[in-house]
Amino acid sequence: MDLLFFILRGALNTVKISIIALIGGTCFGLIMGLAHISRIRLLNIMAQVYSGVFRGIPILIWLFLIFFGIPLLTGQGVSISLTIYIGFILWTGAYMGEIFKAGIKSIPETQWKASRSLGMSYIQQMYYVILPQSLKVIIPPATGFFVGLVKDTSAAYILGYPELLRASRLVMQKTNAFFPILLGVAGIYFVICTPLSILAERLEVKEKH
Amino acid sequence: MNNIVKMINVHKYFGDLHVLKGINFHVDRNECVVILGPSGSGKSTLLQCLNCIELIQKGEIVIEDTIITPIPTKHDIKNVRNKIGIVFQQYNLFPHLNVMRNITLALEVVQKISIKEAEQIGRNLLDNFGLSDKADSFPNDLSGGQQQRLAIVRVLSMRPDILLFDEITSALDPELVGEVIKTLEQLADEGKTMIVVTHEIGFARKAADRIVFMDSGKIIEEGTPDKIIKDPENERTKAFFSQVLS
Fold first, then answer.
1. CATH code assigned to A2-208
2. Burial code of A41-56, b = ≥16 C-beta within 10 A, e = fewer?
3. Cβ <8 Å between A113 and B88
4. Cα separation of B188 and A22, whole Å?
5. Beta bridge partners of B212
6. Do the Cβ atoms of A84 and A63 come closer than 8 Å?
7. Which strands form B66-68's sheet, in the order they lie side by side?
8. What ipTM did this prediction achieve?
9. Is residue A176 less than 8 Å (CB to CB) from chain B?
């Protein structure tokens, strides 16, 4: 029974990383998206470089780079869970930045003109006019990305963080019941991800009409 | 001088393209000025420079007591946009908001008017312009003519001193043009200060106090509707009217 709890706690950790990455990464991604579409050339380039670098290297490597790199740079150690949060937030931010960029760009220039001529500030335009309309374009790919993110959090395993996969592995070693546990773990991922996938599909279908 | 709008030697470029070539132009309070001219003559650009949607490269624009230079301050831009309302060819309504919210949004967030008051203003205007039963509809459920009238109402709600109309009937089905023109005439009768870029010669003849004729980035001729339409002096103006009126 304790062992089952241990696995479920792992599952909870998986959900926890996913949600932290989603929330933090979405906020950060919005900033990246704004940098992407900014009129300031330097911000465009920085956003592009960031996005390219983060998306071009596996999250696993990033986790290592952060875990071993931060002590080298600052002389301060960094905890495993902090490494994982930072890593996944930065990584999610890079992808969400691209998604926000595409969403904002999908809104015709005339909406900017109209809201600007009514006297709205940039932030007001974004908040009341542009972002609400671009959500239609943003939510389907963002949901799809989130499904992938939940599965990719298994990379946290490598640093010894007790997310679902790592927790199960420890239990497997204790019990020797490899296959049933593995099936159980697969089942848990499936149960978390499938509703999200279905949601993503629904949103995409809705978008086409 | 009673000039509420003044352009002094204004030049505008889009990259290498010289769109406005030294425009000198003025509008008096309560005057309805119609700008006519062939496509690409710079009419729309002139309007968009007036409320700083486009910035000019040389010259000066004076709106009441605000002076707009090629590098205006944020404060001046804000001032000018408070004084000027513009209606566009493509309506540019907010499709995600209902009719009432399209009107109240800017009142609430820009002019900081309470939502209750804003809705009262909205209801009055919708009544005045025959849209009172549409308050809860969404823009895409309205006809083109209704959408354009809503766009006019949205601008009027901000109580601007000067109204700009940028080819607002050009995207409409021919049978819907009439209702929008009627709305424009209503505004001209009320003595609103307005600058109308249009191809509707009929409207110009009926409602304009003055017609300004533009060609390739310059003002070529201006005067009363009678004078400009029936007895133009400039060859280009003559050619234009003989073509559109034939």
1. 1.10.3720.10
2. eeeeeebbebbeebee
3. yes
4. 54
5. B35, B222
6. yes
7. B17-28, B3-14, B58-63, B66-68
8. 0.86
9. no
How far is Cα A147 from Cα A150, in angstroms, rounded to an integer?
Answer: 5
Residue A25 — very low, low, confident or very high, per pLDDT cuts 50/70/90? very high
Predicted pLDDT at B31: 94
Contact A117 B94 (CB under 8 A): no
Which residues of chain B have a CB within 8 Å of the CB of A132?
A: 96
> Which of B150, B137, B132 has its CA nearest to residue B90?
B150
Q: How far is CA A45 from CA A37, A48, A52, A84, A114, in A?
A: 10, 5, 10, 27, 28
- The pLDDT of residue A209: 47
Question: To which residue do tokens 């596996």 refer?
Answer: A58
CB contact under 8 A, A110 and B90: yes
CA closest to B78 among chain A residues: A119
Inter-chain CB pairs, A–B, below 8 Å: 50
CA distance A90 to B115: 40
Domain boundaries, chain B: 3-89+160-245
Q: Which is the CATH superfamily of the domain at B3-89+160-245?
A: P-loop containing nucleotide triphosphate hydrolases (3.40.50.300)
Residue of A nearest to B96 (CA): A133
Single out the residue of A81, A44, A48, A84 nearest to residue A65, CA to CA.
A84
Task: Give the nearest chain B residue to A108 (CA atoms).
Answer: B92
Burial class (CB in 10 A: 0-12, 13-18, 19+), B60: middle
Tell me, what's the pLDDT at A199? 84
Are A129 and B94 in contact (CB < 8 Å)?
yes
How close is the nearest chain A Cα to the Cα of B32, in Å? 20
The pair of three-digit structure tokens given for residue B24, joined into one six-digit string: 């000198």
Question: Cα separation of A156 and A17, whole Å?
Answer: 9
Domain extent listing, chain A: 2-208
What is the pTM assigned to this prediction?
Answer: 0.85
